[in-house]
């Protein structure tokens, strides 16, 4: 047997070394926390055997603060490409066993490299984030290194989908880069996101808070609105990222993948005809409406625990991806407030940049009145929804299921914001405001002068309801294209979507708009 070439033996040894990450002790610590290693995570995320690693021999370059003693191959991140459902994706996974996954110059260079390759090849970028943020030892070089990533996050936004899966304590830049991406998915209990951790907060403000209460999945799912989805463990997070991606195209010039539907596109749903109560002050489940209209079991709700007065999510209709926006009449009667505005506006823009048609279900009594809302900038936030719908060029369809009052009528994909097809159910009420408020404003003097003011008020409210408490006035002036029975909704929306499939709606040339933020 001839002796093996020592150069090849060396390569094999180096390759083995690459697999070790920060060493057995740190890997054991990682496992003790119930966490997988970076490589195991990528294996679960990608189709089996498709991971191709790049730049595995890179190490950090500086010698500061004792860093000359330990140079770890790969510099704390695995980068490369692979496939999800047979589609090309570029990936990076930070390795917490190497300096806590903290980002230095060379780690950043590796990440930027896959980001650049992803855009050149029109493929999504998926980041598995598990990092203490900027690597302290590298000082300003690690800050510049983050800036390189942030710039790419911004410049590649709307070009290829960017997904961040949060799998550990993510501080500083490790939280900011995901905030620039399209989707943040957090693992419950083990993932945190904060700019400054509990220790720094205690030192500066005196507040005492634990990591979970400061930046755990529950907080970002329900309070800050930062996270889109969370799961109880890492395998389910990685599986969910694959599902999310199945609704998106690989880049902004492709259409989302089509999946042959198992649900009849012409299916009528009789239950829908009795879903909206006759008394329009009573709530009903908009989730039920959505579930019954879209292809069976395809609705993936995003941000389900934040701003619950509105609902957003991805689904399929007739096998094609759609973005669903809706009000939730069971939560705050479906009013549009600051958080709902932000939630809707960002989602509409995501769908628009990735060629996902929008289907909007409307049932809202209007914008939320109140000093807090006005001081908090509801005008500025609500303007984002107007901006987003007006700017979106994807096919847009709206279905007014019940109330469409005032500003809420206008912002929720109304006809003259450029919506292509507007449907209304017979239960729709379309007016500037509700009957009682309107009568008090326009008939104040008439009511005051009447012999029996209360009877006069009741009569006028009834008259107003007669005129505006239905969709027929709006239809007679062309603001509603068709009044449909609720049971026909699925068929009508799918048929409309196919008629809009080749829609072309060019923008006037400009550098970019100035969306209110
Ligand atoms: C270098 C770091 C590091 C960092 C952690 N480590 N964070 N090394 N730079 N930022 C190292 C630790 O020294 C340790 O090394 C290993 O990673 C694991 O860390 P532990 O503290 O033992 O783990 P844990 O108890 O789980 O705590 C994780 C942590 C904590 C919550 C992330 O380490 C922490 O608070 N780190 C600092 C976070 C931070 O403030 N980062 C800077 C953000 S500023 P050994 O050798 O023991 O394994 C920033 C600016 C960007 O990012 C710009 C934004 C706009």
Based on the model shown, name its key terms.
517 residues, alpha/beta, 2-enoyl-CoA Hydratase, Chain A, domain 1, eight-stranded mixed β-sheet, binds hexanoyl-coenzyme A
Notes on the protein architecture:
The chain has 517 residues and is an alpha/beta fold. The chain folds into three domains: 27-245, 2-enoyl-CoA Hydratase, Chain A, domain 1 (Alpha-Beta Complex), CATH 3.90.226; 270-428 and 470-499, Alpha-Beta Complex (2-enoyl-CoA Hydratase, Chain A, domain 1), CATH 3.90.226.10; 433-469, no CATH class. The protein contains 20 helices and 17 strands. Strands 10, 11, 12, 13, 14, 15, 16 and 17 form an eight-stranded mixed β-sheet that branches. Strands 1-2-3-4-5-7-9 form a seven-stranded mixed β-sheet, sandwiched between helices. It has a two-stranded parallel ribbon with strand order 6-8. Strand 4 (125-129), helix 5 (140-155) and strand 5 (162-166) form a beta-alpha-beta unit. Helix 4 runs parallel beside helix 5 and helix 12 (338-353) packs parallel to helix 14 (378-391). The longest helix is centred in the first third of the chain and has 16 residues, at 105-120. Bound molecules: hexanoyl-coenzyme A.
Task: Explain the layout of strands and helices.
Layout (H helix, E strand, L loop, with lengths): L5 H15 L3 H9 L5 H8 L6 E3 L22 E8 L2 E8 L10 H16 L4 E5 L10 H16 L6 E5 L2 E3 L1 H7 L3 E5 L4 E3 L3 H8 L5 H5 L1 H6 L6 E3 L2 H12 L40 H8 L6 E3 L7 E8 L2 E8 L10 H16 L4 E7 L6 H5 L2 H14 L4 E10 H6 L9 E4 L4 E3 L3 H8 L1 H6 L3 H16 L3 H5 L5 E2 L5 H11 L18
Parallel strand pairs: 3-4, 4-5, 5-7, 6-8, 7-9, 12-13, 13-14, 14-15, 14-16, 15-17
Antiparallel strand pairs: 1-2, 2-3, 10-11, 11-12
Helix pairs in contact: 3-10, 4-5, 5-6, 12-14, 16-18
The structure holds hexanoyl-coenzyme A.
């Amino acid at each position: 047997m001839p002796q093996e070439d020592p150069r090849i033996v060396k390569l094999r040894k180096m390759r083995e070394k690459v697999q070790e990450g920060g060493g057995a002790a740190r890997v054991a610590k990682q496992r003790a926390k119930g966490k997988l290693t970076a490589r195991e995570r990528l294996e679960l995320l990608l189709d089996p055997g498709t991971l191709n690693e790049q730049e595995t021999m890179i190490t950090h370059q500086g010698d500061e603060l004792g860093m000359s003693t330990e140079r770890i191959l790969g510099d704390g991140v695995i980068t490369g490409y692979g496939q999800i459902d047979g589609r090309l994706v570029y990936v990076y996974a930070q390795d917490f066993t190497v300096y806590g996954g903290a980002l230095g110059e060379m780690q950043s260079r590796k990440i930027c490299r896959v980001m650049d390759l992803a855009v050149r090849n029109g493929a999504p970028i998926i980041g598995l984030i598990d990092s203490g943020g900027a690597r302290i030892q590298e000082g300003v070089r690690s800050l510049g290194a983050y800036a390189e990533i942030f710039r790419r996050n911004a410049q590649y936004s709307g070009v290829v989908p960017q997904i961040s899966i949060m799998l550990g304590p993510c501080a500083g830049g490790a939280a900011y880069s995901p905030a620039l991406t399209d989707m943040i998915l957090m693992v419950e209990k083990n993932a945190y996101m904060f700019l400054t951790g509990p220790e720094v907060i205690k030192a500066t403000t005196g507040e005492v808070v634990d990591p979970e209460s400061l930046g755990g999945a529950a907080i970002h799912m329900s309070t800050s609105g930062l996270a889109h989805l969370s799961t109880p463990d890492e395998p389910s997070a990685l599986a969910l990222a694959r599902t999310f991606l199945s609704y998106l195209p690989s880049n902004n010039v492709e259409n989302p993948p089509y999946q042959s539907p198992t649900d009849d596109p012409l299916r009528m749903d009789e239950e829908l005809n009795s879903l909206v109560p006759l008394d329009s002050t009573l709530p009903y489940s908009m989730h039920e409406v959505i579930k019954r209209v879209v292809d069976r079991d395809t609705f993936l709700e995003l941000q389900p625990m934040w701003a619950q007065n509105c609902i957003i999510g991805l689904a399929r209709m007739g096998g094609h991806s759609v973005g669903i926006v809706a009000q939730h009449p069971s939560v705050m009667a479906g009013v549009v407030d600051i958080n709902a505005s932000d939630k809707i506006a960002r989602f509409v823009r995501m769908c628009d940049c990735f060629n996902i048609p929008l289907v909007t279900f409307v049932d809202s009594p209007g914008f939320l009145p109140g000093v807090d809302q006005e001081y908090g900038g509801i005008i500025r936030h609500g303007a984002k929804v107007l901006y987003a719908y007006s700017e979106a060029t994807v096919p847009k369809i709206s279905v007014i299921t019940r109330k469409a009052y005032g500003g809420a009528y206008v912002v929720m994909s109304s006809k003259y914001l450029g919506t292509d097809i507007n449907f209304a159910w017979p239960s729709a009420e379309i007016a500037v405001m509700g009957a009682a408020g309107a009568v008090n404003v326009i008939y104040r003097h008439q009511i005051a002068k009447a012999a029996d003011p209360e009877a006069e008020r009741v009569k006028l409210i009834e008259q107003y309801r007669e005129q505006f408490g239905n969709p027929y006035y709006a239809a007679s002036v062309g603001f509603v294209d068709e009044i449909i029975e609720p049971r026909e909704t699925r068929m009508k929306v799918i048929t409309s979507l196919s008629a809009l499939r080749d829609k072309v709606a060019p923008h006037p040339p400009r550098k970019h708009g100035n969306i209110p933020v």
